[in-house]
Write a structure and sequence with these properties.
This protein has a single domain, classed as B-lactam Antibiotic, Isopenicillin N Synthase, Chain (Jelly Rolls), CATH 2.60.120. By secondary structure, the protein is α+β, with helices and mostly antiparallel strands. Helix 3 crosses helix 6 and helix 4 crosses helix 6. It is globular, with a radius of gyration of 19 Å. The strands form three sheets. Strands 2-3-11-8-13-6-5-4 form an eight-stranded mixed sheet. Strands 1-10-9-12-7 form a five-stranded mixed sheet, with no helix packed on it. Strands 14-15 form a two-stranded antiparallel sheet. A hairpin with a 2-residue loop joins strand 9 and strand 10. The model has no long low-confidence stretch (mean pLDDT about 90). Belongs to the iron/ascorbate-dependent oxidoreductase family. GO terms for molecular function: metal ion binding; oxidoreductase activity.
Length: about 350
């Protein structure tokens, strides 16, 4: 396996190798840069400790963000900026390790505790992606690479903190759906046995960024994904038929609705299609945590929502583990995985 980082650092790269040339769909390649305030922002402190009126307003804002965007920024989340910076630095340290040391984690199986690799799925990808990754299953069983020094401790604290944020957001989302506050947390068993996947992405500078792609258009599995990144932009979301480049706020988290939230809400809150583009200047790092139910849980539309709306279920039920296997063993392609479950 040849990682992109090694390819770039070889010093022999002046153009994008043919196997990395990504041809986009012209119908989906319109790019619009919105003003930062156009993207919904949720002040988590007002949701957790605000007055009743402030809390009610944030819940309304969550409803708007989930229904109209599938995406929002979270501020005042309680995770120290210093911890975020340490996590980014630790990731940089891991990717700086000698390739021989990283190869210890070049597992082939989807549920290997720790996997380091490149592209998305080398067995299925027709075009290679300009991306190296580190994926770690961090909950309910915690795993971490042995090096670099201190990585394990930083990762452990970071994952605990992001699970807490996800749990609070899910309470607000439950309320925004007119459900009891702990409905989603209880139904999806968010807590001691829920699944959390940590994914760090490294996007090295590309000599022809217009020809390559970091991650193609796709939606995420799970209920919510919390994302942070270094100072470089690269995330774009699909909104109102156009690509919107996201300009993240300092110290904030970017949050997107996952496929299993769409299934659970019977399509009321839809997962958002997004992609990662690359640049020719510097290395971009993003750190995502995907929050889902236990792997053996069957996720299907919530009966309370289906009955209240007078609808029929719009999706088949499937275990979270089965869904992950379908998505991760194929090419990333929009919401094609979720489409298999539509009734």
């Amino acid at each position: 396996m040849s990682c992109v980082k090694g390819l770039v650092e070889s010093g022999q790269l002046t153009s994008v190798p043919p196997q990395y040339i990504f041809r986009t769909n012209p119908d989906q390649d319109h790019l619009t840069v919105t003003e930062p305030e156009a993207i919904p922002t949720i002040d988590l402190s007002l949701l957790t400790t605000g007055t009743p009126d402030q809390r009610s307003k944030v819940i309304q804002d969550l409803h708007h963000a989930c229904q109209d965007w599938g995406f929002f920024t979270v501020t005042n989340h309680g995770i120290p900026a210093t911890l975020q910076e340490k996590m980014i630095s630790a990731i940089e340290g891991f990717f700086q390790l000698a390739e021989e040391e990283k190869r210890e984690y070049s597992g082939k199986e989807l549920f290997d505790p720790i996997r380091w690799g490149t592209s998305f799925n080398l067995e299925a990808d027709k075009v290679l992606l300009w991306r190296d990754y580190l994926k770690i299953h961090v909950h309910p069983n915690f795993h971490a690479p042995a090096n670099p020094s201190g990585f394990r401790e930083i990762l452990h604290e970071y994952c605990i903190r992001t699970r807490q944020v996800a749990s609070e957001l899910l309470k607000g989302i439950s309320k925004s759906l007119g459900l009891e506050e702990n409905y989603i947390n209880k139904k999806m068993e968010v807590g001691s046995v829920s699944h959390q996947l940590f994914v760090a992405n490294l996007y090295p500078p590309c000599p022809q960024p217009e020809l390559a792609m970091g991650l193609p258009p796709h939606s995420d599995h799970g209920l919510l994904t919390l994302l942070m990144q270094n100072e470089l932009k690269g995330l774009q979301i699909r909104h109102d038929g156009k690509w919107v480049a996201v300009d993240p706020l300092p110290d904030a988290f970017l949050v997107n609705i996952g496929d299993h939230m769409e299934i659970l809400t019977n399509g009321k809150y839809k997962s958002v299609v997004h992609r990662a583009v690359v640049n020719g200047k510097a290395t971009r790092i993003s750190v995502g945590t995907a929050h889902g139910p236990p792997l053996d849980s069957v996720v299907s539309p919530a009966p309370e929502l289906v009955a209240r709306e007078g609808q029929l279920p719009a999706y088949h039920g499937i275990t979270y583990k089965e869904y992950l296997m379908i998505q991760q063993k194929n090419q990333l392609n929009g919401k094609s995985c979720l489409d298999h479950l539509r009734l």
